[in-house]
Structure formats: C-alpha cells, structure tokens
C-alpha cells in the first residue's frame, strides 16, 4: 500500500503581510512592473512619495512651519499683553483725573 502526502491548503494566506506593507512602507500599494518580471513599483497614497513611499510630500516644511506658527502665537501673546498693560495704565490715569476733578485725594 502506497501512502500519498496529505494535500496542502492552497490559496492566499491572509496572515502574511502584503507587498504594500513591506515594500511600500505601508503608505502605498505594489504594482508589477510593466512588461512583467519579478520587480514591483509602489503606487503611493496621497501625501507620500519616493521609491518606497518613505517620504512625505511636506516633510521639508514641517520644521519651518512649526517655528513660524510658534512665532505667530508668541507675537499675538506679546501684543495682547502690551494692550492689557496700556489699558490698565489708562484706567489708572482716568481714575486719578476723575478723583482730582471731584476733589478726592487718592494716592495711587
């Protein structure tokens, strides 16, 4: 009696990582090269570029953009602080003038 090997399951193993996850940095999908062959080309998702979708389109802008936003926020805070101080001094001067008109002696 001859024993035959058990048949192996065929088809796709969904537990294995896909080509896009391995070769395209999980930011694109693999396409076979034109003309066949074993090579691949990554078709990158929106916002990614490079041979293996490893670069972001705006990667070079991230540091200058962050610094610019922080500078604007700092500037707005400084202007708000200065305006508050000026208004405080104006109110103090107005109170002093009102007191002088009415004959009160307020030491401020």
Architecture blueprint of SSEs:
Elements lengths: L18 H5 L4 E5 L7 E5 L3 E2 L5 E2 L5 H41 L6
Antiparallel strand pairs: 1-2, 3-4
Description:
- By secondary structure, the protein is α+β, with helices and mostly antiparallel strands.
- The protein has helices at 19-23, 62-102, and strands spanning 28-32, 40-44, 48-49, 55-56.
- It has two helices and four strands.
- The chain is rod-shaped.
Please give a handful of descriptors for the protein shown:
two-stranded antiparallel ribbon; 108 residues; 4 strands; transmembrane helix; transmembrane; single chain; alpha+beta; Zonadhesin-like
Question: Spans with pLDDT under 50 lasting ≥5 residues?
Answer: none
Tell me, what's the shape? Answer: rod-shaped
Quaternary form: single chain
Strand order of the largest sheet: 1-2
The helix/strand order is: HEEEEH
Strand content: 5-15%
Helices, by number, come to 2
Summarize the structure.
It comes from Gymnodraco acuticeps (Antarctic dragonfish). This is Zonadhesin-like. By secondary structure, the protein is α+β, with helices and mostly antiparallel strands.
């Amino acid at each position: 009696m001859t024993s035959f090997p058990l048949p192996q399951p065929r088809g796709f193993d969904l537990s294995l990582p896909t080509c896009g996850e391995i070769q395209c940095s999980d930011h694109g999908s693999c396409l076979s090269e034109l003309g066949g062959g074993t090579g691949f080309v990554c078709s990158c998702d929106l916002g990614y570029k490079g041979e293996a979708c490893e670069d972001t389109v705006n990667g070079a802008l991230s540091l200058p953009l962050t610094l610019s936003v922080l500078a604007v926020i700092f500037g707005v805070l400084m202007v708000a602080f200065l305006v508050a101080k000026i208004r405080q001094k104006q109110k103090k001067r107005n109170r002093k003038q009102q007191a002088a008109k009415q004959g009160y002696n307020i030491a401020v």
